[in-house]
Specification:
seven-stranded antiparallel β-sheet, globular, 435 residues, alpha+beta, 12 helices
Length: 435
């Protein structure tokens, strides 16, 4: 099995601009600002409906002895009990306040930066699959804070995409006056992760992220730049509005055209980037890469890969490979169609010169299964991770890819059945906007 990657020039970009509906764009902005637009009482009343773990997850952590740390050893009982005590779940909700993320950060299942791995010696577990990591949150993300940990280091929050724990160092508190100034109704979206945001006179800067919102009040007379908003935290954790100039060519504004000349540089900026489970290390996994790409065009997608399949027009794929290929060719719209196998989403991007459907996806690895007697020869050919002997006697592992790639849907097809093709495992397709 050989991983064959394709180039941008081989993708089927739209021949003419595709209009993204006003309703879709309105939904995008509404969902992006949800933590500020709803009252705390209403958010608390429907807390269970938001993606992410509730505080009861602390009890699951307490009851399970098989959580492993960065040193590949189990979390001991004493440190687990200390973490649970610090969460102070009995006083929930003890701090209800609106906030804003002021630096890129992580949203966690538990109030800790320490990882929670499951059986690191087993294929598909251990690094990078830290199960305490829910998602990255980019700066300028609105929040509703509901609870503080006992040491005041962590806040349990509702974000537009997940609920969970965020370091209070990354949050500033906002009042209605700040919200009124920040919610301008006009939001630029960075076209890459390399747009430097350095407020005038400030000694610090951050790099914007694709998928981030940058409010601006109006288009000014400067033809080549735009004044956008960000925030910093004062000593008492209050948000302070900052303004920074960015080049207009570095951001999408308004009704950004969904077409080849805009899509190609976006895909190029994401292609080859390291895989980041749950957005770890400010990288992207399969669902966050698709989500951030679509955010540029004001298309709202949930953060979870399974939830993304509930958006748009859903198809259950047929059983056979030929039937799947036929349906994909008939109905799929390049760059607006998500294909799914268990736990992994892929963006359909047209057909290769050979007529094979192509997918753009952030992927960690391919599952591999090798009979014992063939293990030595196989290890000579492929860099395998997490090899272990399963109950059936075969050795299970992973062939690591570890980045975003453009491949055929047949990726993984192997004459010896050591790996399975992506197509064989696909079971669903969602059109974000039909033909």
């Amino acid at each position: 099995m050989k991983v064959i990657e394709y180039r941008l020039e081989q993708l089927s970009f739209p021949k003419k601009p595709i209009k993204i509906s006003t309703k879709t764009q309105t939904t995008f902005l509404k969902n992006s600002l949800l933590p500020w637009a709803s009252s705390p009482d209403s958010l608390l009343a429907k807390l269970a409906s938001f993606p992410g773990k509730e505080l009861t997850y602390l009890e699951k952590y307490r009851a399970d002895d098989n959580w492993y740390g960065e040193h590949k050893k189990p979390h001991n009982r004493q440190e687990r009990e200390a973490l649970i005590a610090n969460a102070d779940a009995g006083s929930f909700p003890n701090f209800v306040h609106k906030g804003l993320v002021v630096q890129h950060t992580d949203l966690r299942r538990l109030p800790t930066e320490r990882p929670g791995f499951d059986q690191p010696k087993k294929a598909g577990e251990g690094y990078p699959f830290d199960y305490f990591q829910e998602t990255a949150l980019w700066a300028n993300t609105p929040l509703q804070i509901l609870h503080l940990s006992r040491d005041k280091q962590w806040g349990y929050v509702i974000s537009p995409i997940y609920k969970g724990w965020v370091s209070m160092q990354a949050i500033a508190l906002v009042d209605e006056e700040f919200i009124s100034a920040w919610t301008t109704g006009h939001y630029a979206r960075p076209l890459s992760d390399n747009v430097v945001l350095n407020p005038e006179g400030s000694l610090f800067a951050i790099k914007a992220k694709m998928g981030m919102l940058l409010p601006y009040s109006e288009l000014d007379k400067q033809a080549d730049s735009l004044e956008v908003f960000m925030a910093a935290s004062t000593e008492n954790k209050q948000a302070r509005l900052l303004k920074v100039r960015v080049a207009k060519k570095e951001v999408a504004m308004g009704d950004y055209p969904f077409e080849e000349k805009t899509l190609k540089p976006l895909v190029s900026a994401l292609l080859g980037r390291p895989y980041g489970w749950g957005g770890a290390l400010e990288n992207r996994d399969c669902s966050s890469m698709i989500r951030d790409l679509m955010s540029t065009y004001q298309i709202w997608l949930p953060r979870d890969s399974g939830d993304q399949m509930e958006m748009g027009h859903h198809y259950d794929l047929p059983d056979t490979a030929d039937q799947k290929l036929e349906l994909i060719e008939k109905e799929a719209v390049p760059f607006l169609t998500i294909l799914r196998k268990k736990g992994h989403n892929m963006l359909y991007v047209g057909k290769s010169p050979e007529g094979e459907p192509l997918i753009f996806h952030a992927i960690w690895a391919l599952k591999s299964s090798v009979p014992h007697e063939e293990l030595g020869n196989y290890l000579d050919q492929y860099p395998l991770e997490g090899m272990h002997q399963a109950d059936d006697g075969e050795f299970k592992g992973r062939i690591v890819i570890g980045q975003s790639v453009i491949t055929s849907v047949h990726l993984g097809q192997d004459e010896q059945n050591r790996t399975r093709s992506q197509l064989d495992q696909m079971y669903a397709m969602t059109l974000l906007q039909p033909n």
